[in-house]
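From the methods appendix. Each design record in this collection lists the tokenized structure first, followed by the designed amino acid sequence. Records were kept in a plain field format so they could be parsed without special tools. The example shown here is representative of the layout used throughout.

RECORD:
FOLD TOKENS (220 positions):
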């Protein structure tokens, strides 16, 4: 672990157990509009910012429902479900953050969520003070899978991308971090990596609990 000069985390589905809430409220919106289960559209939205996510909704829901109205209903239900109490952490998140803090390793969050909302979610979860920087999707011109957000997070920390460990759960996030030139650990959440994703050659673990003891020297 000491070979890295910084650790950069995705947020939803990686640190915070929010993707299940997002999927549940997405399916509630599908039921509200009577359009049937559209999980494939949801899966394509994972790891994207608001602009790209909206474009995916528009294409995926074309001919079924007005995508803007769908987004309004989905967003209102999601916000209501994530603002009424602390957001649960993913298994091992608190321990890993504590371990990295004990190494005095700078940490940042690179999330497709807009910065004010991300900051509030991290504050509600009780881990905001662990991070030197919060880089939201509103701070960069291009969403994941482009590398912009990871490059900005590394620059904000003053660390070369090649010296950063990036932690992600989604394909879009993995692509972004790899394109930025970082060492990438993926801890899948709702969607298991497809064969073409495994072929990227990055590290795939079952839990954040496995990160601290991972023998990076064995990584290809």
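DESIGN:
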């Amino acid at each position: 672990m000491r070979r890295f000069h910084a650790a950069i985390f995705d947020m939803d589905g990686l640190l915070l157990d929010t993707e299940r809430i997002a999927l549940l409220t997405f399916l509630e919106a599908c039921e509200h509009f009577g359009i049937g289960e559209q999980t494939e559209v949801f899966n394509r939205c994972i790891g994207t910012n608001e602009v790209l996510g909206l474009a995916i909704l528009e294409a995926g829901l074309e001919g079924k429902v007005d995508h803007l109205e769908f987004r309004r209903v989905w967003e209102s239900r999601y916000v209501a479900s994530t603002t009424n109490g602390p957001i649960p952490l993913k298994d091992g998140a608190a321990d890993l953050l504590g371990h990295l803090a004990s190494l005095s390793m700078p940490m940042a969050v690179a999330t497709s969520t807009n910065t004010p909302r991300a900051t509030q979610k991290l504050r509600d979860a009780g881990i905001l003070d662990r991070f030197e920087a919060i880089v939201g999707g509103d701070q960069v011109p291009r969403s994941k899978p482009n590398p912009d957000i990871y490059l900005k997070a590394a620059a904000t920390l003053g660390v070369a991308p090649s010296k950063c460990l990036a932690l992600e759960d989604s394909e879009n996030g993995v692509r972004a971090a790899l394109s930025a030139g970082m060492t990438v650990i993926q801890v899948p959440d709702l969607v298991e990596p497809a064969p073409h994703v495994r072929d990227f050659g990055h590290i795939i673990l079952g839990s954040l609990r496995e990160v601290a003891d991972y023998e990076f020297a064995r990584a290809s």
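APPENDIX NOTE: The chain has two domains: 6-17+89-218, 19-82.
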